[in-house]
């Protein structure tokens, strides 16, 4: 009986290190946490063009943007470059008679990054050129001519820069890139 217990104790003593040698060290990824603060600037660019030509823009209509650069905290990317962002048209005025120019106003709503929707603030706007000088000159010569003079349409082109800001504190947890996995080969006896 003593020999059986002694043999079992020896087997367990040598078996545990052998199993550890085969599986290798267990790596744990340390997560770091941080906060993306409200007011952090996020450079965006238009992913579609907006114009008052054709009179198709409507108040409340959504438009698409994307991040122009990655947003990082301590060297870790929180919002990757190219992340989709959404905005909303808040005012549209089409060009019109008597030299009236077109106008577009909009606001930035949010950006989607890493499966999360982050609320943002910011605005875009453009105003066409008025035809006031032409209208005044035409009215002097022919009074009804000003009625037919228009300003230009407002236009925000594809790729135009937009500056937006994070509108809420966002807690983040970053898992740094893991060290390469080490696989040990069992020693041959």
Quick structural gist:
This protein has two helices and twelve strands; from the N terminus they run H-E-E-E-E-E-E-E-E-E-H-E-E-E.
Question: What features would you highlight for this structure?
Answer:
2 helices, 17% helix, 189 residues, Lipocalin, alpha+beta, elongated, 6-stranded antiparallel β-barrel, signal, DUF5666 domain-containing protein, two-stranded antiparallel ribbon
What features would you describe in this structure?
The protein starts with a helix and ends in a 15-residue tail after the last strand. Residues 15-28 and 131-140 have low confidence and may be disordered. It is 17% helix and 38% strand. β5 (71-73) and β6 (76-79) form a beta hairpin. The relative contact order is 0.24. The protein has a domain at 42-71 and 81-166: Lipocalin. It has helices at residues 2-23, 132-141; strands at 32-36, 41-46, 50-51, 62-67, 71-73, 76-79, 84-93, 103-113, 116-127, 155-156, 161-166, 170-174. With 189 residues, it is α+β, with helices and mostly antiparallel strands.
CATH architectural designation of the domain at 42-71 and 81-166:
Beta Barrel
- Characterize the main sheet: 6 strands, antiparallel, barrel
Structural class: alpha+beta
CATH topology of the domain at 42-71 and 81-166: Lipocalin
- The overall strand count is 12
Beta strand %: 35-45%
- Secondary-structure element series: HEEEEEEEEEHEEE
Task: Average the pLDDT over all residues and give the rounded result.
Answer: 75
CATH class of the domain at 42-71 and 81-166: Mainly Beta
What is the alpha-carbon Rg in Å? 32 Å
Low-confidence stretches: 15-28, 131-140
Distance between the termini: 30 Å
Question: Based on CA inertia axes, which overall geometry fits?
Answer: elongated
**What is the percent of helical residues?**
10-25%
Put simply, the count of helices is 2
Strand order of the largest sheet: 2-4-7-8-9-11
Organism: Sphingomonas aerolata
Keywords: Signal
Protein name: DUF5666 domain-containing protein
Signal peptide: 1-21
């Amino acid at each position: 009986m003593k020999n059986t217990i002694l043999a079992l104790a020896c087997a367990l003593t040598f078996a545990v290190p052998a199993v550890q040698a085969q599986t290798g060290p267990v790596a744990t990824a340390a997560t770091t946490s941080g906060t993306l603060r409200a007011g952090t600037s996020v450079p965006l660019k238009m992913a579609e063009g907006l114009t008052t030509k054709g009179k198709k823009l409507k108040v409340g209509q959504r438009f698409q943007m994307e991040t122009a650069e990655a947003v990082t905290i301590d060297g870790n990317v929180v919002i990757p470059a190219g992340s989709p962002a959404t905005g909303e048209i808040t005012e549209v005025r089409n060009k019109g008679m008597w030299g009236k120019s077109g106008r577009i106003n909009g606001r930035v709503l949010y950006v989607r990054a890493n499966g999360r929707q982050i609320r943002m603030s910011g605005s875009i706007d453009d105003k066409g050129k008025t035809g006031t000088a032409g209208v005044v000159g035409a009215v002097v010569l022919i009074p009804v001519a000003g009625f037919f003079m228009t300003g230009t349409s407002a236009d925000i082109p594809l790729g135009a820069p937009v500056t937006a800001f994070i509108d809420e504190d966002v807690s983040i947890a970053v898992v740094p890139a893991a060290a390469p996995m080490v696989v040990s080969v069992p020693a041959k006896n």
